[in-house]
């Protein structure tokens, strides 16, 4: 089961001129294969057969490869292409161990070859050396394969369902496309690779001893390699004629044939050729052929002798066919199990294969052009794959960020943070650095019952949070989730807040607290300008909201909460980022940064009051809501934005806004991936160039698919099921690998950009405090951060690299930003009650 490093079959887009060298016996072929395609692909071949003299077969390896190089030169000169450097596929039909597509070490000679100094060496290297020694032509040896792989590739050109190659001639062998996860000899577990079975050696360990006959053992004993290739010696053309001869000799000596007579010719090894067996089994002329062959061997056969000889031929060839079918059945079952399907593609069945594997349909496609064309097709496929890979990587490289680029992002973020904090430049800054009037984190003495309203998307929560202090310090929460219909998010502000108030009233009644007067913390996760803690003036809607009459208004005003038949004291308006920081800060006093990476993205942190120019006073600190999603809206990220980012931005609700968020957050990553896949497909780099209508649909590739596809536990078969859900029913294993790579590149960039922004935040805190080293905790929330299998790790690595003087602990918020709003309210009530 030797890896061949052939990972794909022809897809019909290959073009160009390719050389092939087909070496598998005493005669070998050199071919020029021209593959052209103007809508319909066409293959033209020219070839020349050359002989290898016996003295060279059994001489030195140097002589053998010098002879091959000389024949190649002759062929190139004959066609007038000696001055061209063409790619060549090398069919080398002997047991080899491959380490690359163009590197193959001969394990052992078979088929009568004994050239010294070749076993254990790279045959491609030996051929290259022989060509270089001549110096009169040059070729690019791209691939080395055996005849079985060549046969599969030849037939695979005409039938894309061809996944098995079978040779039954002078020797016998098979190959098939195996799942990479089963190949322990090769690194990686994604995709498939053609495996050269070298099944001729089946039985060398004694596993066939119970069915081998005395005749099989006699053939083996007289062979060039006793004890080796035992399966091949039972079924291949080199030995079937000899098996028949030994049986006839035995029967004659036992007086069962030819009146007990033998002849010198009958007793001579090799005198009963396999071609005789085929002729004798012919239904019409078989008996006549039997008589003719036997007479040529010096015998005087009776009609009964001819019938008996025909029966011996049939028994020997039928056994060979059945043995071949039995092993092929094992291959078919392996492929079937790999695919986890009940039936393989098929039209015709071989009788014995049907008997042995009734649940597999098999189409036998005869290779008319030999394995030489297959070698050329492997080369053509390798060239196509290399060209497509280079183009895909060129495109994906626009989405890959190096360290210098990430440092530049950090630097620009720092500049925009300073612009946002300064009164003079605040108006034009993209990172608004909005004061939140949250001046303190919990100290553990907070207590009481608080309502919290957590609004940041189409689903929102109403919570009752019971805070206990002292030795039994704890936070107990009850909550209920409500939905905001899309027509309300796009309607009027009055309709939106009427709906919210109705839900609050329902929750209070649900909790049996109707008539109670409770302070409320309002998590409002949209850009707001605040002049005090209980006020939030909406700057602009994001996340698809468009309710009219809200922008420029205070969302906490009693005008919005007027239809209330219970007392509601809005103590604090915060956004989800601040809420997250406070939630984690309740457990970890070092938590002074909040980060959200979910549908959207944002960050907040405790800034020195002396730097917050929008608020009077220089003493202490205040939490600043960065609103960093708008970073890049002045063009700061234009040099990093790709055509895919621009396409996503153009199709968004607010083109030109929230550019940083559109490169990072869960609302947009799936769309970036979808646009890359569309581009790949349009260029013929994916899905065989065939687009599905569903993939053309905006928003169809949800970001959750990235998390699923990139999961280390997800098999490629499951990736294909996701693609099939998207209407890509004919997607291949290779397509799945490429989609996974695209997802990985897009999500890695997002995590790196987020890490770069966060590095600017923690380094600013360190410099604010004049510290050489800073130890700080960041509270993090958001579905992308929580559910994506690699986002958190990549972001942490980027942060550590770009801010090496900051020891950052990332703490995942388990209770959401609603709890944080209640805690801010609790802190505000504590401070108010203390008269501060």
Structure report:
Helix 4 (147-158) packs across helix 12 (370-397), helix 5 (214-221) crosses helix 7 (237-253) and helix 17 (643-650) packs across helix 19 (666-682). The N and C termini lie far apart (79 Å). Helix content is 40%, strand content 18%. It is built from 25 helices and 24 strands. The strands form six sheets. A six-stranded mixed β-sheet has the order 12-22-21-20-23-24, sandwiched between helices. The chain has a five-stranded mixed β-sheet with strand order 4-3-2-5-8, sandwiched between helices. With 836 residues, the chain is of the alpha/beta class. A hairpin with a 7-residue loop joins strand 17 (528-529) and strand 18 (537-538). The chain is elongated.
Features:
836 residues, mitochondrion, alpha/beta, nucleotide-binding, ATP-binding, 25 helices, EC 2.7.1.1, single chain, 18% strand, repeat, 40% helix
What is the element layout, followed by pairings?
Blueprint lengths: L1 E2 L12 E8 L3 E11 L3 E11 L2 H4 L3 H19 L7 E6 L3 E5 L2 E4 L16 H12 L5 E6 L1 H12 L5 E5 L3 E8 L12 E5 L17 H8 L10 H4 L1 H17 L20 H7 L5 H11 L6 H37 L11 H6 L13 H28 L5 H19 L12 E2 L12 E8 L3 E10 L5 E10 L2 H4 L3 H18 L7 E7 L3 E2 L7 E2 L29 E7 L1 H12 L3 E7 L3 E8 L12 E5 L17 H8 L8 H6 L1 H17 L20 H7 L6 H10 L7 H36 L5 E8 L1 H5 L3 H12 L3 E7 L3 H18 L3
Parallel strand pairs: 2-5, 5-8, 13-16, 16-19, 20-23, 23-24
Antiparallel strand pairs: 1-11, 2-3, 3-4, 6-7, 9-10, 10-11, 12-22, 13-14, 14-15, 17-18, 20-21, 21-22
Helix pairs in contact: 2-3, 4-12, 5-7, 7-8, 7-10, 9-10, 13-22, 16-25, 17-19, 19-20, 19-22, 21-22, 22-24
